[in-house]
Write a structure and sequence with these properties.
The complex is a heterodimer of chains A (about 500) and B (about 240).
Chain A: H1 10-17, H2 23-31, E1 32-35, E2 41-44, E3 47-50, H3 56-64, E4 75-78, H4 95-110, E5 114-116, H5 126-132, E6 141-144, E7 158-161, H6 164-173, E8 175-178, E9 182-189, H7 198-209, E10 217-222, H8 224-227, H9 231-239, E11 248-251, H10 255-261, H11 271-283, E12 293-298, E13 305-307, E14 315-317, H12 333-343, E15 358-361, H13 363-366, H14 369-379, E16 389-392, H15 397-405, H16 408-414, E17 418-419, E18 440-443, E19 459-462, H17 465-474
Helix pairs in contact in A: 3-6, 7-9, 14-17
Chain B: E1 33-40, H1 48-51, H2 71-77, E2 93-95, H3 108-116, E3 120-123, H4 128-136, E4 141-143, H5 146-158, E5 163-167, E6 172-176, E7 189-192, H6 197-205, H7 211-216, H8 218-226
Classes of the chains: A alpha/beta (about 500), B alpha/beta (about 240).
């Protein structure tokens, strides 16, 4: 993605522009274009990702304003939300879905924007494909009309979701009017137990800090437990920062980041790689970085975590009971009562053993290869319980190919799971995959809001992909630690 | 700069239910004074999936989104939802509680509220992306204390025909349960509101729709870009 204004002096520039501070501070400063009259900052956007749901009105607005796309080479498109996961033959059975994809195709063709379409080998959920293509890199600003854009912060990018008016602004100017966030460091010590994953860690963080605890903040995830996470685990973690109210979540780039990026299609190579690695390393929060505040966690103390309610903050360890009103802070009681009613749960009841109807493995949170590997390890040699609908939706065509190459599709099929085509699927019910009536799902996705999975009365339990596989096998919420052979350090309920 | 114009607010719009209402124009120019009836949607953590369920996002224009506003909640409440109650038809000021608009970044949420008739939101707190999406449409999201938000919600429920006078410059909202002509003299509630300085300035100056400002800074944009090595593929 080279561009014509290639500077020859950037190392000199660097010494002026990269200062001490947090990664957030440094990346912000590097991308600052101008101070705007309203008091906000105009920020250059290094990578703009678009999809079929939040872009059509932005292109229409651009046309209405008589503007063109400022840097078409910095915008990359794919289709994910509305694609069916059973048959992806065109035209889609749903004419609205077909119209949305057709509109995206026309807009991308008209404005010379690269579209990774169905069957290209590179299509998939936008937050899965940009990292796997090496588009997402440390030190970038990344924007996309989707709140889970925080995912890309796993690389040490400053990445955030935007609305359609802002998509229009990025198309028109490759920049956005933004206000600077505070930075909270989430420091995680210790080691996650076997059977406990990044999903459990982030559900635990949100449970502790609340769904609006991060409003006005970027979350920097750091500490030995974060250093030990793979890139895919870091993506799961940063993906759900927004569920804790933090529009931005990030990890500092390190050797794990660089090893993931090396050799990917859009990653620099040769001499450029060495320069890139040096620049990326210089951006990490240094020992002199000052954070607005810090919260500490112990990874070893975290159990597989399951949501019982209607926000991602209503989570408990699989060995815990649904909190009673007495155990709930006064200001959260109305929401807890609403959740008891909606979920049809009794306060004080154990969450383990709760029967489920549908088991969904996939999404931008947990639809990557390592997620499917973890779930397949549970499913291998076992079988989905009678009456349970269980299905696996790879996050991208590349994830599907890699999983099939190691036979994971066969493992899942043999265990009674359906193996589907890539897309957002049942995370958000904009395609044929949805709950019906009062069905209750065990889901590796990111939101358990009322109606989120397509039925106005459908119920969602968020958990890790391995926990979803365990629920599918058992027919009810089950502690995956007992299936992965880990020492069952289960405290009495 | 255009003169600020109150929206909705006409005496007609305060008439009893069943009256055909002339919809207020969408925001344009400075937003300084809003006069209109209120509608309260009570509850914390109301997410954008509830404000507009995902099936309504299957569209290529924002037109027609009004019917999607709180669609599932309205179905569940079978006519009892505030957005369905006859006395709140034509209301322009939405009063909510804590963390309103959390979740998905869908601008369809404020678009649906705007197309239903909402021109301002008052609440205890707002999710960040929702706040920004509203600002981009010229819809202020103003913060009130939990007690004040609740008091305003109770007052609206008690006297749905009362007019609210939302003064963006003074950052106050007044409610007059007697008046139908916008006179604030006998206001029974007069509450302070909060709005961060930047968005406040953008709204009252009419500079909330900033695309042209961003496009204008071409030289500055080039200067910033020239210092970003990844744009040049880390070439030397």
């Amino acid at each position: 993605m080279g561009i014509p204004w290639a500077p020859r002096l950037f190392f000199i520039s660097l010494s002026f522009r990269v200062s001490a501070g947090t990664l957030y501070d440094k990346v912000w400063e590097l991308h600052r274009v101008a101070d705007l009259p309203g008091g906000s900052t105009q920020l250059f956007i290094g990578l703009h990702l678009i999809h079929e749901v939040t872009s059509p009105q932005a292109f229409a607005a651009l046309r209405d304003l008589g503007l063109t796309v400022r840097h078409p080479e910095r915008t990359v498109a794919t289709v994910d939300h509305i694609v069916p996961t059973t048959s992806q033959a065109r035209p889609f059975a749903d004419p609205l879905a077909e119209a949305m994809l057709a509109t995206l195709e026309v807009n991308c063709a008209d404005h010379a924007i690269t579209l990774h379409g169905l069957g290209s080998g590179r299509q998939g959920i936008v937050h899965v494909i940009a990292p796997e293509l090496g588009l997402t890199q440390p030190g970038m600003t990344v924007a996309c009309g989707d709140s889970h854009t925080s995912t890309h912060g796993a690389f040490g990018a400053i990445a955030f979701g935007i609305g359609t008016s802002q998509v229009r602004d990025v198309l028109a100017s490759q920049s956005l009017a933004m206000n600077k966030l505070k930075v909270r460091r989430i420091w995680v010590e210790g080691t996650l137990q076997p059977g406990v994953y990044a999903k459990d860690l982030v559900l635990h963080v949100i449970r502790t800090l609340g769904v609006k605890g991060g409003v006005g903040h970027a979350y920097e995830f750091a500490g030995p437990a974060i250093d030990a996470l793979s890139m895919e685990e870091r993506m799961t973690l940063c993906n759900m920062a927004i569920e804790g109210g933090a529009r931005v979540g990030y990890c500092n780039p390190d050797a794990t980041t660089f090893a993931y990026l090396q050799g990917r299609p859009h990653a620099p190579a040769g001499e450029a790689w060495n320069r890139a690695e040096a620049w990326w390393s210089s951006l990490a929060s240094g020992p002199d970085a000052v954070f607005d505040d810090e919260v500490r966690f112990d990874a070893a103390a975290i159990a597989p975590t399951v949501t019982w309610g209607i926000t991602p903050g209503q989570g408990i360890g699989v060995d815990e009971r649904v909190p009673t009103l007495e155990q709930t802070p006064a200001e959260e009681r109305p929401l807890a009562e609403e959740a008891y009613r909606y979920m049809d749960l009794v306060p004080g009841a154990p969450i383990a053993g709760l029967p489920v109807d549908v088991c969904f493995i996939g999404s931008c949170t947990n639809g990557r290869l390592s997620d499917l590997q973890a779930a397949a390890a549970v499913a291998r040699g076992r079988h989905v319980a009678p009456g349970i609908k269980a299905f696996v939706v790879p996050g991208s065509e590349q994830v599907a190919a890699a999983a099939e190459a190691e036979g994971l599709d066969a493992v899942f099929r043999a265990a009674g799971f359906e193996w589907r085509e890539p897309g957002c699927s049942m995370c958000l019910a904009m395609n044929p995959d949805r709950l019906e009536g009062r069905q209750i799902s065990a889901s590796s996705s990111n939101r358990n809001f009322k109606g989120r999975q397509g039925s106005a009365s459908g119920r969602t339990l968020l958990m890790s992909p391995a926990m979803v596989a365990a629920a599918a096998i058992a027919g009810h919420v089950a502690d995956v630690r007992e299936l992965v052979g880990a020492a069952a350090a289960v405290s009495p309920p | 700069m255009n003169a600020p114009s109150p929206v909705a607010a006409s005496a007609e719009s305060a008439e009893p239910s069943g009256t055909a209402l002339v919809p207020a124009p969408f925001p344009a120019g400075p937003v300084r004074l809003l006069l209109g009836r209120g509608v309260a949607v009570v509850g914390n953590d109301i997410d954008t999936d509830r404000i507009i369920p995902a099936r309504y996002l299957k569209c290529v224009t924002f037109e027609g989104l009004a019917e999607g506003a709180f669609a599932d909640d309205r179905t569940e409440l079978a006519g009892a939802h505030p957005f369905d109650r006859p006395e709140h038809q034509g209301a322009t000021i939405l009063v909510v509680n804590d963390n309103f608009g959390c979740g998905s970044s869908r601008e369809h949420a404020p678009q649906a509220l705007m197309r239903w008739g909402i021109r301002a939101v008052i609440g205890e707190s707002f999710a960040e992306i929702f706040f920004g999406n509203c600002l981009a449409l010229g819809i202020p999201c103003l913060t009130a204390s939990p007690a004040d938000a609740a008091a305003l919600q109770r007052a609206i429920a008690a006297t749905p025909a009362a007019l609210l006078r939302l003064d963006l410059e003074a950052l106050r909202v007044q409610l007059d349960p007697q008046a139908s002509d916008g006179t604030p003299a006998s206001a029974s509630l007069d509450l302070p509101l909060q709005l961060a300085e930047g968005p406040h300035r953008m709204l009252v100056s009419g500079q909330w729709d900033g695309t042209s400002q961003l496009v204008a800074h071409d030289a500055e944009l080039r200067a910033t870009a020239s210092c970003l090595p990844y744009l040049a593929g880390f070439g030397d």
